[in-house]
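Hi R.,

Here's the chain you asked about this morning:
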Amino acid sequence: MTGRETRGGETTPGETKRRSAAFAIVALVSAIAGSARAQTRCPAIEGGQQALADADAEARLAFVHATMRDQASRAKMWTWAWSGVGFGLAAGQYSLMAVVPANKRFQQAFEGTAALYLPASIAVMPLQVRADDETLERFLADTEVDGHGIAPCVRLERAEELLESSAHDEALHTNWLQHTLTIVLSGGYAAVLAVAFKNVADVIVNGGGALILGELQLWTSPTGAVSALERYRRGDIGTAAATAPRVSWTLAPLGVAPGVALVGRF
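And the predicted structure, written out as tokens:
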């Protein structure tokens, strides 16, 4: 023998012991690394409680990620639904111009154009959560490289920033100022109808309908990021961040012509 511990291709007891020890060390290191990853802790977000700081970073990120995806989906449905309502009402009013008396066509066109306020308001002030969710998806994809990407707390901090941004935007879309603006614009619309066309029925139906539709648009605006952020700050992330969007439909005055409109709630 010249220091080798194999005979005829067989492994000697010494070699077997060394291999077993090596395997044990590798398993121990892997277990320690896995435990460290499973117990990553990051500072709590501003306003967050100690329960949040004690929560696992990956669980926190999963909560934020799920919330952003859910709210982006709801915002997309809300945007398309209300844009469809506005364009549908306008198309209906314009189509009636062919059958109304000639002296009523300008009024008909005016009322149809007024219905475009619904999609126009969404275009001017869209819900930010859709763009924030796309930003988060790209960021997470770019920083996830087989476990060797950016530090978990840095990834979580960026996700939290986007959640806060989306929650702030949702709150702005439904605050008292928006309700006041809706009332003022509806009142101005009714005043224009009263002065320009002197038709009491049109003032009541169209002015009142515009107010109802404007309020419904606000009340159905997604606000899940606001409530999710409140839960998150408390450290309440033990259950799913959100559920699949639920849609219900109700009837409301048409707003710009006699009749009713089908309105969705998200």
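Strands lie at 6-7, 10-11, 248-253, 260-265.

Let me know if you need anything else.
M.
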